[in-house]
Amino acid sequence: MSNRAEAREILRRIGDQPDDEIDLAEAALALGALELPNANLAPYRAHIRTIVEDLAARVAAQEPGADSLEARIAHLHAVIGERHGYSGDHDTYDDLQNANMLRVIDRRRGLPVALGILTMHAARSQGWPMVGLNFPGHFLVRIEKDGARAILDPFNEGQTRSVVDLRDLLKATAGSAAELEPGHYQPVSNRDVLLRLQNNIKLRHLSAHEVPKALEVLEAMRLFAPHEPALWRETGLLEAHAGNLKDAITALETFMALTGDEHHRHQTASLIQQLKNRLN
Question: Do 245 and 148 lie in a common domain?
Fold first, then answer.
């Protein structure tokens, strides 16, 4: 089996899994392999295992009774940031390599969500509760212990972010009029984390008017999130834009079967009919 075929099979299996069983790191590696089909995943899996082992060793070596929220945060920073040298790519943020987990591991640089996936995988390997948050424009994670919580910024050395920090960060990414809302603190699913990772790549392709490449990214997204209506709708619209009318109709009909949004259903039914008329 080729690396690309193996990656697609991994993502298909994830598409059938309950969300809480998804291995974020393995999924991110598979997504990276679709972009770099000649890459061997074994060294990357070994590196992620090393991160987990290094964290476990630090935890085992700490003094009895020293486990605390602050200690866990310090361990994560010591292993991911200091020992393995990961940090956010502030200089070439929009480089597509920053969203490909294979290249993130090669370069020890990445986007907030890519570094967040590594942080979440490491924390969860120790049984530490950690989730991604629905914070706009900049991926953040939340760690919890015994009712205490902290929001960490994987892009900036895993620093703990205060409410003031979050407000400033939101305004920097969403505009000066933006204000914090309760929804920004809501946890997101594992699939949503992966969708957010791939959205970075898709949007950069669309900004460069590379519709075929954006469609390839959407295809990968549909493998691990096959029941997400928005993916099928966007696929249909892009296929129609590219002149692939039969593929557009198929995608839009799938969207119709999945969505409960009556407004979009009505719009889409009209569009499907227009596309069918163009085919005849």
Answer: no
